[in-house]
Hints:
CATH architecture of the largest domain: 3-Layer(aba) Sandwich
Shape: globular
CATH superfamily of the largest domain: Isopropylmalate Dehydrogenase
Strand content: 15-25%
CATH class of the largest domain: Alpha Beta
CATH topology of the largest domain: Isopropylmalate Dehydrogenase
Oligomer: single chain
Bound molecules: 1,4-dihydronicotinamide adenine dinucleotide, magnesium ion
Largest sheet: 10 strands, mixed
Amino acid sequence: MSKTITVIPGDGIGPDIIESVTAILDKAGCGFNYEYADAGLVALEKHGELLPESTLEAIARNGITLKGPLTTPVGGGFTSINVTLRKQFGLYANVRPVVSFKGTKARYEDIDIITIRENTEGMYSGLGQTTKDDGSEAEAVSRVTRVGCERIVRFAFETARRENRQKVTAVHKANILKTTSGMFLAVAREIAKEYEDIQFEEMIVDAACMKLVMNPENFDVIVTTNLFGDILSDLCAGLVGGLGMAPGANIGADCAIFEAVHGSAPDIAGKNLANPSSIILAAVQMLEHLEMQDKAANIISALRDVIESGDRTTADLGGSHGTTEFTQAIIERL
Ligand code: NAI
Ligand code: MG
């Protein structure tokens, strides 16, 4: 029986890039059934809420979700849908691979880095308050747990081992944030001993930023806490040509959500201008997660060939073609 996955087209360019990626998955012979679900502004208009119960049920039922970008309205006290999903489904690992493609506007050519970010704790635990009535003082609490640190570090080493990677770099600020980052580093050192086949390196976050820009080819797998991971993963996307080339997976024990990391790009929505590479690369991550390595490899090589030959690429890649022509060029190679 073929596997059913939940598909959330989302807002703005979401429907365009989802149409592209599902056509590619079908042509590659992945044989999925798609259960479409609404979230974001489109859901607010149709169902009166950003994240309807029926969508949450579909995500839970199918276990695997492919998600387009969602617009969180500014004002009105809406909490971020992405943060809600991470919490609700315990999606503790945010996996952001970046890999160089020739023919993009990237400054580097040999980058292949996976950033693994703890997705549920740390600075983003939502704990904090304004501490003076006149609003002149505020505090935020960063809370990490030993269980949370162990889980993410182990996930990073397991990923490194599965993908035949050489090295895991734990990025921290334990010299200043002695309690929280200190715990993360201590746990990372302990767990590293269980993986003698993989090199372990530790690096302070500010130095990591500098070294990523100067010598990105020295990095392999990076594991870090929530706030540092948020920032470093965008830095890494910049190394390979920006968010249009960067996918992300949010992985928990029972559920996983694969997404384009860019936003809904309202400036180009509905104009057949969006580059679907980010969601295509997210689908590749999804196929690897489902142990469909052959399909994943076929799709990535078709995508690489189109981008590197410049055959019908989109404007952000330096071409002059639309989402549908770019998609067609990939489909012809499958
Ligand atoms: P954005 O990523 O939507 O756009 C930034 C710039 O990059 C724009 O010029 C856009 O045209 C371009 N761009 C983005 N994706 C592209 C693609 N696939 N192909 C070609 N060009 C692309 O960021 P922005 O404008 O800050 O946010 C717009 C909306 O998206 C906001 O409502 C924000 O909340 C939401 N958003 C949602 C995310 C998600 O659901 N994962 C992530 C980031 C933002
Ligand atoms: Mg971010």
